[in-house]
Amino acid sequence: MRREKPQKLLDYAPIVFPAAMLIVFFVIPFATMIAVSFFQREQAGFYTPAFQFANYERFLSLFFANVLGFSLMLAIAVAICCVLLALPFTYLLARMSRKAQIVWLVALLSVLSLSEVIIGFAWSTLLSRTAGITNLLVAAGIMTEAKALLPSFGAVLTGMVYQAFPYTVLVLYPAIVRLDPTLTEAARTLGASPLKAFFTVVVPALRNTITATLIMVFIFALGSYLLPQLLGRPQHWTLSVLITDQAIYQSNMPFAAAMAVFLVLVTLGLVALTVIAGRKGEAA
Amino acid sequence: MTDILKSGVSRRAVLGAGLAGVSMLAMPSILRAQDKSLKVGVYGGYFKDSFDKNIFPEFTKATGIAVESVAEPTGEAWLVQLEQAAKAGQAPADVSMMSQVAMLKGQATELWAPLDTAKIKNASNLLDRFVNKYPDGRIAGIGAVSWYITLVTNTDVYKEAPTSWEALWDPANADKLGLLALVSNSFLLEVTAKTYFGGTNALDTDEGLEKAFAKLAEVKPNVRLWYRDEAQFEQSLKSGEIPMGQYYHDVTGLAAADGNPVRSTFPKEGGIQDSGCWALSRASEKVEEAHVFIDYMSQPSIQAILSRKVGTAPTVKREVTDLTDAEFAAVSSDIEPIIPRYDLYQTKSDWLNQKWTELIVG
């Protein structure tokens, strides 16, 4: 089949519906948010239309810089952990029998059906002192006393990696399944160990996929606001938690919108940097 | 006759009218609504369900005024909706249950129609603090329900009940507390002022607030959980994972009655008493009915029913109700309560919020 460029206006018809959906449910709300971020906050009421930078000025402080820095660091850590775990997992999964693959994929998809709330409460029970996994370790004689593993950074990271892991596998899976098996076979024939073949052949061949997955998990993790509250201390709260506080509890929409716009801009900037760095690396 | 037949009423229209008629008959409240009715906004969920079941049917029976209850969101979203509707001359609810901060914000825009106490005989039963007034003395709202936030403990971990809010500051309680995460719902500044600085008047000045914040910062090492979600703390309190904190008196009482090892204590400085008001939107045309409703709700007998069935503390004086000591203790206390400084959350909300967030996150 030959792919032709659209010639007439009518050729664009198939994309009218998705475009309309995108405009109504994404472009308009996003534009509204940008507009509101410049509005005047009324402490005693709600907000009035205006054009001012006060909301952005309030955000530019050491305090919010720290929170933003932590949020980015957390999202990057989640992305790296997920890819480190999911890459070997998916590689092994792709070499299993069709039946075993289906069972694993269905199990992963069922994790996706769990809401953030359920994941959060489940992990807070698992990591608690009274009913958590340390009780098993005590029973096995490894620990002398059960202790709580939360609230802590480790608990937040664990919960978020658990939540993002199925996405990571599902993004990596198609690329890994399509990977030409003769590549590794050639490497093995030439004397490379399975481990060496994985790192010197499979990983470089998947470089673009891995970058794309890292970015996707990073953005996914950046929006998390429930797990840091359920599993972490206040210093582990992400910027999304503070945005929620402003929007819902303080009804300070202009400030919440300004923070959200800032978060989007920083995210886009980081993604752009990653893509550019990737291209440069390829050219070299 | 033939003219009528020719007038072009389609079969579809006749069917439609018939259907509408049937559904009117099926919902008698709408039929009655044509003469006397009132739309009442109540917090959605447990509150609305309890009111629909225990209060509104009796009110309709007693007064002939049909009530259409509207589930209102908590937070200030409902205030915003009422405000914008009133600008367009609409009232999504005639009477609404509003938080104290929302009452003050509504006053700023004259959203609340002034109430006439001459038409509310039972208003004389109310405790003074439950009559919400405009600065010039007009009445903006009448206390609907109130509830307490108290010092709660797990009885397995704390054999003796604490007696003072000072327990929050006790170094022995390191990493054991669960406290509410927002300045505007934990009211811990007021608790600090009452416990250490002689009363909530200490918060009148910025210096006073700074002092309270500094004192409150000492609590931080003791706090294990700053919660927004009630279920999160309740579960940990029951299991002893987080054995002390601030929580709702009535819910803790219910949990204890279910056999959980928890107790709620009114510290000697008093429990924190929060409340909701009945307020009438200025866009409402049901002024008469609204007064009848508010009067009905302010009766001691109705307040007693609310205490028994919904678990709220009465907004009327204790003597006029027929609550037994046990029933009263289940929802309230004779110890003078700590009343939140709602005015601060209107005039200084952003500053307080920023200071508070920096305190607990920083």
What does this molecule look like?
The complex is a heterodimer of chains A (284) and B (362). Chain A has 13 helices and 2 strands; from the N terminus they run αββαααααααααααα. By secondary structure, chain A is mostly helical. A two-stranded antiparallel ribbon of chain A has the order 1-2. In chain A, α3 crosses α7 (153-178). Chain B has 362 residues and is an alpha/beta fold. Helix content of chain B is 43%, strand content 18%. The longest helix of chain B is centred in the first third of the chain and has 16 residues, at 11-26. At the A-B interface, α3 and α12 of A face α6, α7, β7, α11 and α17 of B.
SSE layout and pairings?
The complex is a heterodimer of chains A (284) and B (362).
Chain A: H1 16-36, E1 40-41, E2 47-48, H2 54-59, H3 62-94, H4 98-112, H5 116-126, H6 134-139, H7 153-178, H8 181-189, H9 194-205, H10 207-222, H11 227-231, H12 239-249, H13 253-283
Antiparallel strand pairs in A: 1-2
Chain B: H1 2-6, H2 11-26, H3 28-33, E1 37-43, H4 46-54, H5 56-63, E2 66-72, H6 77-87, E3 95-99, H7 100-108, E4 131-133, E5 139-154, E6 177-180, H8 183-186, H9 188-196, H10 206-217, E7 223-227, H11 230-239, E8 244-248, H12 249-257, E9 262-265, E10 272-280, H13 287-297, H14 300-309, H15 325-331, H16 342-347, H17 349-361
Parallel strand pairs in B: 1-2, 1-3, 6-7, 6-8
Antiparallel strand pairs in B: 3-10, 4-5, 5-8, 5-9, 5-10
